[in-house]
## 1
Amino acid sequence: MSLLIRPATEADVPAIAAIYAVEVRERVNTYEYEVPDEAEMAERMRRVLAAGYPYLAAELNGQVVGYAYAGSYRSRIAYQWTVENSVYVADAAQGRGVGKALMLRLIAECEARGYRQMVAVIGEPANTASIKLHERLGFTLIGVFPALAWKHGRWLDTVQMQRALGDGAAHPPSEPTNR
């Protein structure tokens, strides 16, 4: 198995869009109802990168089988040191360490950029694979919001987990930036 974690590029958008389409149509790991097309996914990638956040692709034997990115947790200025992570892995690559490799690199990239906290918003407590992955990487359960979303004909609880990055809350952050 040859796994490569690297910055994502626009050439990866078709594979990324295909992975995400399954999540939208069949699962509750995202709360979107309509599958975004490749143009929309490319625009989303451009916005993440333009804002200075990392966006990664995982290649397994030359094929893109997963992706991860960080983005703003909330838009207010005081949240500028906190990021929310997203990680998606194609069905064929599940259980092969792709998600863990993506998350480790995403954490390192966010720490290098000076972020201090990472939040995971997980689309329901039944997503034990994601919860266990985050726990193994140092995330702690912050809480479960009951019936926060409606998708596929049912109410969904939403799990939130958090992990310190770098110094976390041990020291004040560096000077404010225009993130």
## 2
Amino acid sequence: MASRELLDKLNEAIAREMQVSIQYMWQHVMAKGMDSDSVKALLRRIAIAEMMHAELIAERLDYLGEKPTTKPAEIVLGESLKEMIEIDKKAEEEAIEMYRDIIELAEKERDYTTRKLFEQILAEEEQHHGDFSSLLE
């Protein structure tokens, strides 16, 4: 059975995925400026991917006997397109760190399914981070 620590971390991950899903979708709507069309499409695509992550983690948490949270972490939108992307890049960095910790804990607890799930999600988060980093270059 999963430890309380792992269950809590999975719920934190869901809250974070819901947060960025809403954050990126609202930024998609609000983005303005010369480069906004391509950035808007990217934000929308990543927002949908993040919601899918929330769903996958919630399904895992439900399987482990825990109720998934319905409350997102704090949503931060930003004012300018550049500020939005800087905020989003930082959010991805935080997710990468969190997911590495979850992978390590799941491995320690011999929960290989959770480990594999988060390895897959981590790879996508690293891609999102790369996308946001490229936009800022």
## 3
Amino acid sequence: MLTLIQFPWSPFCITIRHILKRHHIPFKLHNIAFHDRAPIITATKGAGYTVPCLIDGKRALCDTTDLGQEVARYVDQRFTLDLFPKEFEGIQLILSRYIENELESVGFKGNDTYVIPKRPLVERVMMVRHKERKFGKGCVAAWTSHRKNLNSQLAELLQPIDDMLASSPFLLADRPLFVDYNLYGVLENYLFNGKTKLPSLKHLRRWHRAMTHAN
């Protein structure tokens, strides 16, 4: 059986988790603290330290590139899911960059303002340290005070996605491809805290309901 080492709120972990769930692939979850990468480092024999980390028998792998699709592509090939059809390779790459750069960079900030304060003390401090090293001192407090603006930014960035979904049940085809799971992971990260909501975009909300309910 597969084991997925994860942070429950991570958009990229949610993506892999939902691919496995929706395709009825048995797996176990191993949740770790944000600052404790030892289980990943041990499993990969030092080759990786990021989530998601997937263990399949004696093999363990993490994403190794900036775009980070290695775990998803492994699951796709291992279980013949056809999430990366050759004819959609280029457009999936372009859409993934938009999803993971533009959308995720706004969505995670809103979620972090709710999630970080609720983590245990050591994990909370380490998470704030990590964010401040990347985004500057006081960034989490700044995001908290600008939640409404972040929500508005995300809604604006999601408008082109809603426009795409007006003429298609899923982003590129009549079934979910990798980019659908990619988008789902980013949005479920945004919604993880239970306080935020999807913007009032009709086609996006219809798509989200279809993605949430398994086949």
## 4
Amino acid sequence: MSGETSPPLCFETGKVRQELGLPGRVHSPVGTPLRRLTTQEAEAVGQLVPTILCGEESAVHVFYRGLATLPAEDRPAVLKVVTDETEHETMLSSLFDLCPTPDDIKLRRAKSKRFFMSMAVREPDIHFAQVSALDSGVCILMDELLRGHSAVLRNPDLTRIATRIKMDEATHVGVTRRATKTLGLPAKTYRDQAVATKQAFCDHLAYSADAFEALSVCPDKLFKRIVREIP
């Protein structure tokens, strides 16, 4: 690694990192091949990473802002989530540096930024419900990337990153679910928000369906599972 600061893809998180005393992202050398993946598979990874990376950048801000809406006893768990998300952001940023840059990267970045900005609402209980659904969706996405004949399983670094994110996001779902209860969100409202958010997430991911197929992950199965499994 060069030690240079890596620029954000969609949302700048440097101020949050600085205020919490967390390290900045580190820029990786560009052009290193992804071991044991074909060119098409490496390109597919490069197409998927921007969506997840933009989500992690957005999550850093969501959880940091959400701290102030919760009782003091609930804040340490949410603060741990912020730390986790910054670490995911760093890992995915480094991974993106190693992937072939998609020809439509500007469009992918714009679509992702627009999608995650559309999740912003004033009500903290609703916002936590949406984030809980998104975290669940990312957890399921990573799980599918770690199943069957997925090309991800042939690369130890990709496997490590996907496993780490899957495990952390499963924990984050529990934290955000508890936050909605603390803030008094009715169970039915939580479920309605989860279903709507997950469907919107799948609609967003559909743009990258070909990339999932290139990695031997069935997009239809993935999308159905994301919508079906409500935390």
